[in-house]
Hints:
Layout: E1 6-9, H1 11-23, E2 30-34, H2 36-40, H3 44-53, E3 58-61, H4 64-73, E4 80-83, H5 89-97, E5 101-104, H6 107-120, E6 124-129, H7 144-153, E7 158-164, H8 176-195, E8 202-206, H9 208-213, E9 221-224, H10 235-245, E10 256-261, E11 264-268, E12 286-291, E13 308-311, E14 314-319, E15 327-330, E16 342-349, E17 352-354, H11 356-363, H12 367-372, E18 380-382
Keywords: Isomerase, Pyridoxal phosphate
EC number: 5.1.1.1
Protein name: Alanine racemase
Amino acid sequence: MSHTSYIEINSEAYKNNLDFIKTQINRDTIISSVVKGNAYGHGIEEFVKIAVESGVKHFSVYSSYEARRVFEVIKGKGFTLMIMGDIHSEDLEWAIQNEIEFFVFEKQRLKKAREISERIGKKAICHIEVETGMNRTGFDESEIEEVFSFMVQYKENLYFKALCTHFAGAESITNYVRVENQCKKFLRVKEQSEKLEVKPDIYHTCCSAALIRYPHMQFDLVRVGILQYGFWPSREIFIEYLKNKKVKESPLWRLISWKSRIMSIQNVHTGDYVGYGTTFLAGHDMKIAIVPIGYANGFSRTLSNTGRVLIRGERVTVVGIVNMNCLQIDVTGIEDVSIDDEVVIIGNQGDLEVTVSSFSELSDQLNYELLTRLPQDIPRYIK
């Protein structure tokens, strides 16, 4: 069954990015591959297969729903799976039974985990999250001694695997003071755990941005998301890296390409409008190609009259309003353009490229947002 577009995932690009990440962390630091948001739009099932083949042994997701999808790929021994956020109440027992690790950031989850562990006779593997300034999830510093005491009291049921936190915008220098204060607070809690002799196996705080900008906070594990997919957390960090390393090109390679095809070709006369409404008026005779993707497929409506795609090695413009299921592009002057010609929405064709960053700048979306909005039903292929 054919789809109107498809996504290619480059496994060699991933191996390159993984090698780069390893140069930025301590030798013994574990890389946890963050595959939340459908592996940042790359497809959990396809991406996890690539990561496993590249030697990755640790995966992080946001929800128990995502955990179940990863679990189906990595069934068997030798892999660690960690849930950083939402766990449906009916999934907590499943997670404990299958030795899936999870963040604990509220007393209700801690108590429920203990109850289930006692009932099924299997320890819950807990990562205690500390609220250090993100003000999202985590135990407040004032609560932490009580939490530690609970962990000790029920150590037969609760395995204190890790103490962790999450930084509030490590990708931006404007957040420097805030993140530094988070570092200090986490280190205080870490010291408190050691004084109380309630020491976990590991500590972790760093996402992609933090492992680059705050290397002293890498500890035992880093949760790597956007970097592994070939994108910098922000332009600011990319420029900082180039300056510090005195290099001119990014060492990261993009994994993702998104392609479709021409569905129809129309001739438009001078003075005719193209598409819905009156946003585009033909100032001369034009040839318009119709591509069967639209905002229902993740091609934002804000790209109307501004988006760019590649056809026959040329960069062409979206004209008129992006529809739910199709868009119009100007192919005037392109010789031999025909139905079924390849259309590159993201990626390379010949010497030209449409990058995710240029795509997102035109649509006013973050890289993260654009990628994770790519529908799950678009087929993903590993190459």
